[in-house]
Amino acid sequence: MPRTKNIAGSLGIIAGRGDLPCAIAEAAVASGIPLHIVGIRGEASEAIERFPHTWMKWGEIGKLFSALSDNHCTDLVIIGGVNRPDFDNVRFDLGAIKTLPFLLSLAKGGDDYLLSRIVRFFEDKGYRVRGAGDVLPELLMPEGTLSTKGPSADDRADIATAFKVVHALGHLDIGQATVVARGHVLAVEAAEGTDALLERCAAVRKQGRVHGTKSGVLVKAPKPGQEERIDMPTIGPETMHRAAAAGLAGVAVAAGHVLLAERAETIKAANVHKLFLVGEPWSDADTND
Prior knowledge:
The chain is an alpha/beta fold. It is built from 10 helices and 13 strands.
């Protein structure tokens, strides 16, 4: 794998939950890019310890920047899920106190505002913030069908409707996903996330409010203008398992704008459950016309 995007120094990885931080690290190692992972305690997996790493707690901003500086990191990937910290119980180090105006600014606005502020904060410190797809393009969902099964004509109609719904939701800063079956919107994603969305759909089916064989599609795409470098939508094997439990026919996502975690396992899960998995063309310019 070639050295990516002219990374001149070391790559810093700020790691939250999941397997993606280690996947990025493995890609960097394979490309000969030196790296250092800063793992957030209580969020990041202990698996990061097989790479050069530093552990930090919420509030240890000084420790974070010392680790990045000491290891000559010039580029950053911020990857993995995190829970919002309880700031009443967070102990701030001197580095955090020096950035207190910035930390206080994070209490205002929605998720999109918060994430864009975080990116600007690191850029103002001289770092180049990279998306996971910059370092490991194979993580991005490609266009086309990855599963053995493809969508039917009825599925295609549901996919088209669902993308219109997701685009409308994105403009309202509501969520990144929806489920549509036979032209009807079964559920839309809000703050609870995609897994909970699919659980609600499974509950609706168990209640007998959806009849017949497998039908419906989960569609996922970023919000228009979303800061994809640190908040790109993600699907993985668990998405396939939950989609099957919800009785859906398949999953369609925005090609090039959704991360495919554990690619082989995700495709395997889709095939085991006889679901389709497709990447569809998508851009911020899409409309509901």
